[in-house]
Every structure is written in structure tokens, then in C-alpha cells.
Amino acid sequence: LNEKLDYMENLGIVGFEPNGRNLAARVNELEQALRGRNIRVSAICAGFEGFILAEDPAVKAQFDSTMREIIAAAGAIGSPGVIMVPAFNGQKPCKPHTFETRQYLCEELFKLGEYAKECGTTVILEPLNRRECFYLRLVGDAAAICRDTNSEGVKCMGDFWHMQEETSDYAALLAAGPEYLQHVHMASRGKRRMPGEDGELDNYVEGFRALKQMGYDKYVSFECGCSGDPEILVPAAVELLRSQWELA
């Protein structure tokens, strides 16, 4: 962990996004590792078991208990939120895609959001592309659920890989706006590798312009693989994003 953080500091990276699995047991480790560094924990990437739209009560109960444990740990280490997806395509049996399910989701998210607020953090909804989920695919839809949930503890995010579902990066992120947009993920836009590995496809300027326009001051994290030499590709990706941010 300390070698990773040293490497990140050398690149001027200021946010570290851990997975939520077993996070409660790692709070002290993370606090010690980050002490004296210019790096903070950004969002927590999932790590819970079960899922919120499960029809099986045992699976839903598993989600409730593990998610709350992660939320409490996230608050303890100063994370701005825990990322969650309502349901992946492979998670079954799942509640049907109906208006009643949406109402149920808002009610359940309200409970989670209020708990997250008590813990000093948030729950962050992540829309995914249709190959991975059927329920929540657009940033604007996620923002509308945040609105209708009516809890300050429920937010959403945009992921440039999944945002290929959108007609416009700019419009998608502005649809969430500063009220609901809590986090952003990055990846190349062809093979989900390091930004820049897919050449001209990896243009984030319009999305960055939206972030600048709304005064976005939160984290943008890498969530991707790397198909070549990371010693070359990771610094190049960081430089690409900085140059496109300036261009925006």
C-alpha cells in the first residue's frame, strides 16, 4: 500500500479509491498509511454482498448489513461516499423494471442515505452500460432518483466508460449538476484501459467542460486496466487528463 501511495504522490495524484470489501478492518491501516500525505480516500468502490433490488429477502438482508458496515467505515476515514449499483444483469431474482420498483428503490435509498448522512458520508449511485445492467444506465436517471429519494445522503456519479450510453458527456454530467454529482470514473473509451490507450476515442474535453462549468471540486478516479507497460502508460494517462482539463 505504501509503495502505491508513494507512486501516486510522485504523479501528483491526491485521491485513493479502495474497494469496500473488508473496509471496516482496514480503517486503521488506511489512516496510518495516509498520515502526512497529500492523498485522501476518495469514494469507496462497492464491496458489499447481495443487492438492493433482490427479491430474495436473505439476499436483500445481506446487502443491508454489509452496505451499512461499509458506509460506517467510509465515514470513519473521511470518504465522500460508497459507490453502489442497484442490480447487475446477472443478479437474479431481481425486482422487475417497473414504476413500483423505482418507488421501492427510492424508499430503500432514503433509509441508506439518512444513515450515510449520520456517518458523515453518502451513497453514490453509478449508472452502467446496458451490457452490465438493465436498471440504471443514464446519469440523468440516477440524478432523478437522487432527487426523488430526497435525502442529502444519496448522490450519483458519471463514469466515462459507461457514459458511452449517453448522447453527450456534457449534457449527462450537467444533468446531475453540483447538487447530485459526487464522483467521476475514468477509463479509455474502447477497451476500458488507461486513458490514451484508445487514441482519438479518448476525448474527455466536453465532459470536463461540464465539470468546470458546475464548479466540480470532487474526485476523478481511474477505474480501468492497463494493457502495456504501466510505467509508461500511467504517467501518460495522468498527463493526458491534465492537458484535456486545461483545454476544457
Brief characterization of the structure:
The protein is α/β, with parallel strands linked by helices. The protein has helices at about 1-10, 25-35, 55-75, 100-120, 140-150, 170-180, 205-215, 230-245, and strands at about 15, 40, 45, 80-85, 125, 155-160, 180-185, 220. It has a 6-stranded parallel β-sheet with strand order 3-4-5-6-7-8.
List keywords for this structure.
248 residues, 8 helices, 43% helix
Helix content: 40-55%
Query: Tell me about the biggest sheet?
Result: 6 strands, parallel
Distance between the termini: 33 Å
Low-confidence blocks of residues: none
Number of extended strands = 8
Query: Would you tell me the overall average pLDDT?
Result: 97
| Silhouette | globular
3D structure, described in words:
The chain is an alpha/beta fold. It contains 8 helices and 8 strands; from the N terminus they run H-E-H-E-E-H-E-H-E-H-E-H-E-H-E-H. The chain has helices at 2-10, 27-34, 57-76, 99-118, 139-149, 169-180, 205-213, 230-247, and strands spanning 15-16, 40-41, 44-45, 82-84, 123-125, 154-159, 181-186, 220-222. The strands form 2 sheets. It has a 6-stranded parallel β-sheet with strand order 3-4-5-6-7-8. Strand 5, helix 5 and strand 6 form a beta-alpha-beta unit. Helix 5 (139-149) packs parallel to helix 6 (169-180). The protein is globular. The mean pLDDT is 97.
